[in-house]
Each structure stands twice: as structure tokens, then as C-alpha cells.
């Protein structure tokens, strides 16, 4: 994009902006790209190769946000849902804030379209949100999507700039969603061979239960003696554990 050998592309490049792109390997033309301000310090990242869609990905720092441009060809593929689910799984496990935007060639505006419905179900299941609700194509369909995870996002407008059969979607990130780690409290005893030996010694010194005692009393007394011995040698310790957010499909 900044190649001096291609003057038209150089002239079209905004100053202080960087281009991230991926070329189409299977045939001529195509590919995906996005332009970002150099202030954002975007670092390109590459995940698995997928056959049913193309993508370009980069990570912005401070705070860390993964930005992905996606293009899915209009030809239907039975394995797209499977491949895109795998892609979302990879992203979900690696990043807490994600933006996916691009031409998905799905009729999201048609609630009776089973392919689009399955796609939206996957997004919902993995806690991703799709924000575009207006037509983005001159034939009246919503094909270009803005999908986010861990970000509060609003689409301000969808405008026909008369440069393509697709419209331009303007959106903004309004805030970050704080993803709190799950917290749980556990109680534990540290049982060692030394504790076991001491337990037997302490238990031997406890006076026996009277033979005339009832069965219920004897059982309760025995349990109480066991607990007292354990509390003396291996007292309960309380721990608060902070675990990493679990993947929604687990």
C-alpha cells in the first residue's frame, strides 16, 4: 500500500496510518485488509488457515484488542459454520476484547434463513454480539457485520458512499466490558503421614464412650472425636481461588 512503485496506492494511503493485509492464495484478486492509525501500534497475528473464509488479524495494544477483517465468499459451503466456530473458539481462548468486521455474505436480515440463524446462534452461544441491523447492500440485505466480544459497541450509521454495491458501516467502541474472573472458596486440610501418625496417637488418648450409651449418641460422639482430632492436627484452611474465565462450550 505504501509501495512507491505503485503511485496510485501510495497517494491513497493516509499519512500516519498502517495497512494490514492478507492476500488470496488460491487464485488472483481478493484478499482482506484494514487500515489503522500508527498510534494504535497494531501487531499482525496469524491463526489457522480456513478454506471457507478469508481474514486479516492484528492486535492493538494499550488496551489489548484483537481486530479481524473477514470476507466470506457468497458461495454456500456446508463446512463454513464448523470452520468459523473453530475460529471463534481460538479467538475466545486467547483474547478478552475482540472486533470482527467484514462482508459475511449472509442474509442476517432474513429470520427464516437457516444458515444465517445458525450463524447467529453460534455468536450468541460464545457471547459474541452482532451490532448491524440495517441493510448494508444495494439489494437491501444485511451482509456486512460488526461483531464484538468484551466491548460495548454502537453502530452510528450505515451510509451508501456510491463507491461499491456495499455500504459503509460507521461504529464506535463506547466502553470495555470488565470480564471478572470466577471466584470460589474452598476449604482444605493438609493430610501428611505425620498427621496420620499423630491422629492415631491423639485418638488413643480420648476416653472411650460409655457402653450404656445409645447408638445415636455413640455415633455422634465418635464423629465428634474424629473431627476434634483432625481439627487439632490438620485444621481447616480457607482459600479463595480466582480461576480463568471458562470457555462457554465447556
TrEMBL record:
Q: Name one GO molecular function term.
A: catalytic activity
Domain of life, per the record? Eukaryota
Domain (Endonuclease/exonuclease/phosphatase): residue spans on this chain? 25-166
The record's annotation in Gene3D superfamilies points to: Endonuclease/exonuclease/phosphatase
Q: Which Pfam families match?
A: Exo_endo_phos
Descriptive protein name: Endonuclease/exonuclease/phosphatase domain-containing protein
Q: Which organism is it from?
A: Nothobranchius korthausae
Amino acid at each position: 500500500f505504501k509501495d512507491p512503485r505503485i503511485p496510485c496506492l501510495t497517494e491513497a494511503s493516509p499519512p500516519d496510518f498502517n495497512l494490514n493485509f492478507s492476500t488470496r492464495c488460491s487464485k488472483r484478486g481478493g484478499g482482506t485488509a484494514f487500515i489503522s492509525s500508527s498510534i494504535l501500534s497494531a501487531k499482525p497475528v496469524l491463526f489457522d488457515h480456513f478454506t471457507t473464509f478469508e481474514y486479516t488479524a492484528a492486535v492493538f495494544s494499550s488496551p489489548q484488542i484483537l481486530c479481524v477483517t473477514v470476507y466470506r465468499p457468497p458461495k454456500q459451503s456446508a463446512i463454513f459454520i464448523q470452520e468459523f466456530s473453530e475460529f471463534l473458539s481460538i479467538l475466545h481462548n486467547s483474547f478478552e476484547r475482540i472486533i470482527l468486521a467484514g462482508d459475511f455474505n449472509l442474509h442476517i436480515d432474513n429470520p427464516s434463513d437457516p444458515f444465517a440463524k445458525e450463524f447467529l446462534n453460534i455468536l450468541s452461544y460464545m457471547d459474541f454480539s452482532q451490532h448491524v441491523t440495517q441493510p448494508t447492500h444495494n439489494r437491501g440485505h444485511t451482509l456486512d457485520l460488526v461483531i464484538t466480544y468484551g466491548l460495548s459497541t454502537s453502530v452510528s450509521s450505515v451510509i451508501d458512499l456510491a463507491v461499491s454495491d456495499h455500504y459503509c458501516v460507521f461504529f464506535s467502541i463506547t466502553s470495555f466490558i470488565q470480564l471478572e474472573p470466577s471466584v470460589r472458596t474452598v476449604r482444605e486440610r493438609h493430610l501428611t503421614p505425620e498427621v496420620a501418625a499423630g491422629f492415631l496417637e491423639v485418638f488413643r488418648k480420648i476416653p472411650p464412650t460409655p457402653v450404656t450409651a445409645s447408638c445415636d449418641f455413640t455415633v455422634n460422639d465418635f464423629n465428634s472425636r474424629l473431627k476434634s482430632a483432625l481439627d487439632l492436627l490438620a485444621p481447616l484452611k480457607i482459600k479463595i481461588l480466582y480461576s480463568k474465565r471458562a470457555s462457554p462450550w465447556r
